Amino acid sequence: MTSLFPALTDAPADRPALRFGDRSLTYAELATATGLLAGSLRDAGRVAVWATPTLETAVAVVAALRAGVPAVPLNPKSGEKELGHILSDSAPSLVLAAPGDELPAVIRDLPRIDVTPDTTTAVTPTQETATDDDPALVVYTSGTTGPPKGAVIPRRAIASTLDALADAWQWTGEDVLVHGLPLFHVHGLVLGILGPLRRGGSVRHLGRFSTQGVTRELSGGATMLFGVPTMYHRIAQSLSGEPELAKALGRARLLVSGSAALPVHDHERITAATGRRVIERYGMTETLMNTSVRADGEARAGTVGVPLPGVELRLVEEDGAPITSYDGETVGEIQVRGPNLFTEYLNRPDATAAAFTADGWFRTGDMAVRESDGYVRIVGRKATDLIKSGGYKIGAGEIENALLEHPGVREAAVTGEPDADLGERIVAWIVPADPESPPTAEELADHVARRLAPHKRPRVVHHLDALPRNDMGKIMKRSLAHD
Q1: Cα–Cα distance between 360 and 353 in angstroms, integer?
Q2: pLDDT of the residue at 256
Q3: What are the residues whose beta carbons fall under 8 Å from the beta carbon of 25, sequence distance 6 or more?
Q4: Which of 66, 143, 233, 473 could be a cystine partner for 148, CB 3.0 to 4.6 Å?
C-alpha cells in the first residue's frame, strides 16, 4: 500500500500545508499532529468527525486515514433525526471534534476526542498499513429518495481521483488552492483538502466564502480556486463593483466549478471581466470525479469536459442499450466504471446491487449528451430533470441556461408536470431580476423557442422570491414540485 500523503514525509518541512484564517500548519507540523492523533485511533473501527470548516476537521480526517480507520464526516447543519440515522447506521466508536464545539444531544453519548493539534511532541513515523481496497470514508448522500445512504469510499478511489485530476489540471506541489467549501462533502474535503495534501501543495480555507477573501488570497499567491455555482454567481455579480476581484481572478492558474452546473451567462461574465475561463468537472459521492475540462484543453461553457484517466464512461438508452454514436444531441444516462468508484452502500446490499449493472457499470442517474470528440454536457437528473414531452426527451438544464440568458431572469429552474396531451409539460420556476416587472410567460416561451427549439419552450411559468437550495447550492427540485 502506497501512502495517501507521501508529502507528509517528502515535502519541505517548512512548506505551508493548511491555513484556516490566521491558523496554519506546515507539513512537518501536520505530520506530527496527525501522527500523534493517529496513534490514539488505531483499531477504533469507524470514527465520526464533526466536520466544521476548521483546521481541526482537516487534522482529524488525515489522522484517521493515516491510522487506517474510516472517517464518517458529519454535517453540523444536519437535524437530529438525520444525525441519529447516520450514527445508528455507521456505528462509529467515537467522535472527533474541535475542543469548543457543542455537539447535539444525539451525539453526546459517543466517546469524544477533542482535536488539539500537537505540533511539538516527538512522534515515531508510522507507515500506513491499510490496503487500497480498505474503506477511507463513509460519506452520506443527501437522502432525496429516503434516509441518507452511506457510500463507502475506498482508499484507491481517493488516490485514483486525485491523481487523475493532477493529470487533467496539471496540479502540482507548487499550487496553492483557495476555497470556502464545507468539509463534509467530497468537493470540499476530498478535492479541497486531501487533494492539495496528496500533491504536496497548500490549501487556504476561507472559513466562510466571500469575494473579499477570494481577492485577498488570489492576490497573495494562491493559484487555484474551487467553488460551487452560487459562489461563482456572487463573483460574477460583484465584478463590476470590485475591480481588484477581477484582477485577482485574472492571476489564477485555474478556476474550477463543480457540484452543479454553472450557468453559461455566469461563465461569460467572468471571462469577459477577467480573461480567465472557469472549468467544470463532474462527479458524485459514489464515484468521486468522472470527467473534467482539462487545463490544456478547450474550456467550453456548459460542458464538464472529457472522462478522466482511468474512468470509462458511456451513455445508455432507457432499456440499457449503449448509445454508440455521439452527436451532441442524443440524451442518455451516464454510466461509469473505474477505480474511482465506491465499494458499497453501508448496510444496504439491495441498494448497492441496484446501483450497478451486471457487468460493473455504475448507474449515475444523470442524463447527458456527448459530442463526437468526447466532451460531455449534462442535461439533468433522470429522476427530476428528464422531461418527456410530445415524444421528445428534453433535459431541463439546457432550458434553464436559455432562461438565464434573458435579462429579466435572475434564477431559473425547470421541471416537468403531467399533461394529458404532451405526456409532460415544461414548467419554469423564475426569480425575476425585477420583481415589480417580471417577464411574461409568453415572452419567456418565445425566448427559449428561438434559442433551442419550439418543443423546449416552457408552457407554465411560476415566479418566486428565491429557489430552494441545499448547502452545496443545488436546487431542490422536489421541493418545487410540491410547492
Answers
A1: 10
A2: 97
A3: 16, 17, 18, 19, 33, 55, 59, 117, 119
A4: 143
Model confidence pLDDT, tens digit, residues 97-152 = 999 999 999 999 999 999 998 888 877 766 677 899 999 999 998 755 567 899 99
Q: Cα angle vertex 472, ends 153, 82, to 5°?
A: 65
Residue 32: other Cβ atoms inside 10 A: 21
Query: Which residues share a beta bridge with 416?
Result: 426
Architecture category of domain 7-192 in CATH: 3-Layer(aba) Sandwich (3.40)
Name the grid cell of 146. Answer: 429516503
Res 391: pLDDT: 67
Q: How many CB atoms lie within 10 A of CB 172?
A: 11
Give the pLDDT score at 481: 65
Residue 325 pLDDT > 90: no
Give the Cα separation of 30 and 437 in Å (integer): 55
Where helices occur in 345-476 by DSSP H, the ranges are 349-355, 396-404, 441-451
Amino acid at 130: A
Question: Over the range 438-455, which residues count as b (16 or more CB within 10 Å of their CB) and which as e?
Answer: bbebeebbebbeebeeee
Q: Give the position of cell 453501508.
A: 346
pLDDT exceeds 90 at position 173: yes
CATH for 386-481, among 3.40.50.2300, 3.30.300.30, 3.40.50.800, 3.10.560.10? 3.30.300.30
Q: Is the dihedral of CA 142, 366, 284, 413 positive or negative?
A: negative
Distances (CA, A) of 447 to 78, 408, 428, 461: 40, 11, 13, 13
Contact (Cβ atoms closer than 8 angstroms) between residue 179 and residue 207: no
- 267 vs 2, 137, 229, 237, CA distance in Å? 39, 33, 10, 12
pLDDT of residue 144: 55
For residues 193-203, give the mean pLDDT.
Answer: 98
Residues contacting residue 319 through CB under 8 Å, at least 6 positions apart = none
- For helices 264-274 and 229-238, angle between their N-to-C axes, nearest 10 degrees: 50
Tell me how far apart the alpha carbons of residues 423 and 429 are, in angstroms, rounded to a whole number: 19
The whole-angstrom distance between residue 303's C-alpha and the CA centroid of its chain comes to 15
Please report which helix (H) or strand (E) contains residue 135, including its range: strand 135-140
**Residue ranges of the domains in the chain?**
7-192, 386-481
